[in-house]
Amino acid sequence: MTVGTGGRYTRIATTGPAHRRAGASRKRSKKALWNTIGVLVFLIMGFPVYWMINTALKKQNEWQNYTPHFVPEHPTFQNFTGAFHADNFAISLWNSFVITIGAVLVSLVIGFFGALAIARFHFGGKKVVIFTVLLVQMVPLVVLVIPVTQTMQDLKLNDTLLGITITYLVFTVPYTVWTLRGFISNIPRELDEAAMVDGCSRWQTFTRIILPLTGPGLVATSVYGFIQAWNEFILITTINHDHRKQNMQAWLIDTAVGSRGTDWGVLMAGATITSVPVVILFLAIQKNLATGLTAGAVKG
């Protein structure tokens, strides 16, 4: 609104009750829209998980019924009992933990020192190493199945847990190196120099300064490395033909394509059990995970 006084014009802002109500109404509408979108996304992403658990709690006559039941009429844990007593379930679950934990620990050690070398030292071919690490992550895992399988056969490591653990390093180590490189680069070099001035050796500087400050990054990297190794099934079903040397993902495939048809109740119960370790891991370290994800995002 413009008011003229003595040949001069002064602009006066109109912020009456009507304008404030209109602004508040627009904010509420926008908030309601985003909340609705968030609820829809949650339902779309969460419904398969709910249906998996729902099927796992149903009796056979319920999940075989053509009419879907969104709530089990008579919930039962019979399918979970059947999964635990199924062939190779216990050994497959044990194999999953051994392979995954082994691959994650080895990749963290190798990846940490590799990332440390790239972030802290200057050497010939450094750009080539960085490009190679990035290139390996871009290559689809399916492309590596044949050469990796032939290599494991030549080394007599097929049908062994050691062989598949080494194989998983193909995709866990490059990811670990690339991720930890960002965390280590964000640690000021002045801290290294101050520690060495105070009498610390290069190794003590790494263990007392860089390693503790990289802790959140190690947590975040280990979680995603755990998920990658835990959920993998293409390589292990190709390299290890012995069912007693396979993991839970391979066990789920064998259960789904059984000679007597698919027992969906047992299959969904097994899938639920397979998901539990990842969920527990996230709940246990969610604070450290959030800190690790944001710690490498801003260069300090």
Care to describe what's here?
- With 300 residues, the chain is mostly helical.
- It folds into two domains: 60 residues; 217 residues, MetI-like (MetI-like fold).
- 72% of the residues lie in helices and 3% in strands.
- It contains 14 helices and two strands; from the N terminus they run ββαααααααααααααα.
- A two-stranded antiparallel ribbon has the order 1-2.
- The C terminus is likely disordered.
Which tags fit this structure?
single chain; 300 residues; mainly alpha; MetI-like fold; 14 helices; 72% helix
Our Rg estimate from Cα atoms comes to 28 Å
Q: Total strand count, please?
A: 2
Number of domains: 2
DSSP helix count?
14
Distance between the termini: 47 Å
List the helices and strands and how they pair.
Layout: E1 2-5, E2 8-11, H1 17-56, H2 60-63, H3 78-84, H4 89-120, H5 126-138, H6 145-154, H7 161-185, H8 189-197, H9 202-213, H10 215-231, H11 234-239, H12 248-256, H13 264-284, H14 286-295
Antiparallel strand pairs: 1-2
Helix pairs in contact: 1-13, 3-13, 4-7, 4-10, 5-7, 7-10, 8-9, 10-14, 12-13
Put the structure in a nutshell.
The chain has 300 residues and is an all-alpha fold. It has helices spanning 17-56, 60-63, 78-84, 89-120, 126-138, 145-154, 161-185, 189-197, 202-213, 215-231, 234-239, 248-256, 264-284, 286-295, and strands at 2-5, 8-11. Helix 1 (17-56) crosses helix 13 (264-284).
